[in-house]
Amino acid sequence: MYQTPEPPELPDIAEAAADAKSLLDTVWDWIIADVATVPVAIQVTILVVIAVTTIALGRRLAGPVAQLVARADARAWLHRRLDRLGSLITPVSALLLTWLATAGMRVAERETELLSVASSLLIAWVLIRLITVLTRQTGVTKLAGAVIWFVAALAIVGWLEPFLAALDAAAFTAGNMRISLLTIINGILLVGALVWVAIFVSSLLEGQLRRIDGVTPAAGVLVGKVLRIGFLTVAVLVGLTSLGIDFTAVAVFSGAIGVGIGFGLQKVVSNLISGIILLLDRSIKPGDVIEIGQAYGWISKLGARYAAVVTRDGKEYLIPNEDLITQQVVNWSFSNRAVRLKIAVGVSYQSDVRKALDLMMQSAEEHKRVLTSPPPATRLVGFGDNSVDLELRIWVNDPEAGVVNVASDIRLHIWDLFHENSIEFPFPQRDLHITSADGLKETMAEVMRSRSD
Hints:
This protein is α+β, with helices and mostly antiparallel strands. The protein is built from 15 helices and ten strands.
């Protein structure tokens, strides 16, 4: 038998209202006791003044920073960073003024809790902006920003020291060394920061070396690689030493896994050594025009692992350094940048060949990229089935600007000159000689009879 369900019990409205009133009273009492006080009002006023001052200062300095960027060398590191350094003016000035205000309040024995919170937030802001200025890697910036804001939040709520103590408590012992989770995190951050600084400084020095007159591109790249390896080695050693790691234990541990890592990094090490060999023997260097396989272009960069070859159509081939040693490479600008091009031309047997050769020479002499030394030359290279085969030989000293375009320009000029001087280009032709026509006549007669039937 169907029974009507009992309606659910409704909460007591009066009791709920009493709880809400109690919560509001508690919040109001906290606001009256801890927020709406003279010390808090003073700190809020100071922060408002700092905010207005820093905003005005940022707008005031925006113009001079823009002028400094415009005057800087477009290739220099300063030019690439100054346009983003303006974003640091506001947070840095706000942080400095907040520190000064905090120091003054402490001298006056006033409360500084709100100023301390603002300082923590401003430090996080400055660090994130600084990382954004110094690196273009979006992933690194996002990760660093998340970590910095997390640490700032812990510091604001007062949980930073307990959190660090918990990380330090999670530890294990390896020989005479005590390794905690906090030690590992500190090691990763310290070594990572030092490695990043090493790469940044080495890249900066390498860029300056390339702009020094008298330093060849190969020497600049080689010195840059040596500096980078040296800085990275020093950074890792300093980082491990700062953490108090015993190098004896590290040597034993690295020896155990060194063989496995060596097999895994065999190609990487091979490319690194190959790059150093290429720079030492100067067989291939930045700026050379090379041809390897299907790639033809100039070397825009010779890195630790690969060489970047830019083609005329905008493609960029990343060729491992090992391939540049083990494979056949055509270096168009190894000992001499002059490159000879051969342009084949055919004329009919009824044309004036000597006149055609003179016109071909004229077309070469009138092109601005053709060298006068060695001079261009014309040759009659053969008698073909349909044409007299001629050849124009020219020299250019800028193969990176293209060689097909030069040949195309000269062919068009030859076309115009030949038409102006009645030099004919041959057409493919075949002569058919019938030795006996008797069989052909019989065949044609049969065809005609079959059609008439």
